[in-house]
Amino acid sequence: MHLNPRIDSLSAYPFKRLADLLAGIEPVRADRVNLTIGEPQFAPPPAIASVVSAHAHLWNKYPPNTGTPEFRAAAASWLSKRFSLPIDALDPERSVVPCSGTREGLFMLGLAACPEAKAGKRPVIAMPNPFYHVYETAANIAGAEAVFLSAEATGGFLPALDAIKPDLLDRIAVFFLCSPANPQGTIAPTDYLSELIRLARKHDFVVAFDECYSEVYTGAPPPGGLGAALAVGPGPRGGWLDNVVVFHSLSKRSSAPGLRSGFMAGDPELVSAFARLVGSAGVPTPLPLLAAATALWSDEEHVETYRAAYRENFRAAERHFGSRGWRAPGGGFYLWLDVGDGEAVAQRLWRDGGIRVMPGAYMARGTGAANPGHRYIRAALVHPPQVTADALARVAALL
Ligand SMILES: Cc1ncc(COP(=O)(O)O)c(C=O)c1O
Questions:
Q1: Tens-place pLDDT, residues 107-154
Q2: How far is it, in rounded angstroms, from Cα 54 to Cα 304?
Q3: d(CA 40, CA 22)
Q4: I want to staple 291 with a disulfide (CB 3.0 to 4.6 A). Which of 11, 55, 61, 225 is the partner?
Q5: pLDDT (tens digit, 9 = 90+) per residue, 165-185?
Q6: The pTM is what?
Q7: 3-class DSSP state for residue 311?
Q8: Fold for domain 7-36+302-398?
Q9: Is residue 295 within a helix (H) or strand (E), and if so which, with residue range?
Q10: CATH topology for 48-298?
Q11: Pocket perturbation via mutation, ligand 1, pick of 182, 297, 363 by most ligand atoms within 8 A of CB
């Protein structure tokens, strides 16, 4: 039997590597806490159950590939308010498409936007290092070369755009950027986003802004790719959205990762290609779930409640680690902590404290000290504040 050899690249999946690292270690404590996964542990908004139930008569319908007009309008209206876009700047019919979680969406976009060759060579999918694993998966499965751009503390945890060589820029098909970033929580300023958009247009690549953490912040709301695109102005095809897409999700914002609901918005040509790919080979969001998602994008109250809990979690982290290998980031919900040797500390915390964390090296590429994550652990502060504070106290005591 023959398998697609590109499937082998999936063995780098961080959770698989973590399971291997901790296999055979029996924690001394019975009260264990899992801080490895960015899965919000808060009660989901009750509207999900009631709206899904009210739309139960639609389970006998295949969902449209581009969602419903109501969903597209709710997403476009939310984007316009949140990122201060002029009313009607976004056409919901041409610029918004739902996806079944942004993980699937980011992957599909990688496939949809990656040509056979770029500048006469193998195309590149570029990403910061560390990164969210799906960007690399998209590159591997699309047959592109994954290029990892160092995003370390010395550079403010953002890749240096002016250090990318022109011949590499010419080969880039898709550039993924996450802001606020997973894992470091870095918020890319508008100037940075704008610079990336200018490069994308000059070198004809797609910039995919992964903004699934945009609603989890401690200070001012983070800027986004659409606001930057508007500031940059029209691109080579005359549209302000040329070469730009953004991804948003209800998983973090609305504490609903099980709903598998997000959307992609931006360049109408990319939205159309994406919808065609999903239509042939993807998972369009079911109608009752789209109805629930429409309700959630139209409400901010529940989002503020979760945000307040994350702020409290960060305050607990600051109490314990404020001056020890960490500075509170502006966004996201991860503690990205410099502990010297992330793998060794992950094993120790599991064995002696019953606390499961992700070694930073598994979120990045590179061997030994050349891996920008090797000194770090990532802890997801996704539990209610009391649970998080207790877990962090245990971590601090063991370091
Ligand atoms: C950076 C980043 N992007 C995308 C996702 C995918 O989220 P979802 O598919 O639940 O929308 C995650 C999930 O952890 C993430 O950390």
A1: 999 999 999 999 999 999 999 999 999 999 999 999 999 999 999 999
A2: 25
A3: 23
A4: 55
A5: 999 999 999 999 999 999 999
A6: 0.97
A7: helix
A8: Aspartate Aminotransferase, domain 1 (3.90.1150)
A9: helix 287-297
A10: Aspartate Aminotransferase; domain 2 (3.40.640)
A11: 182
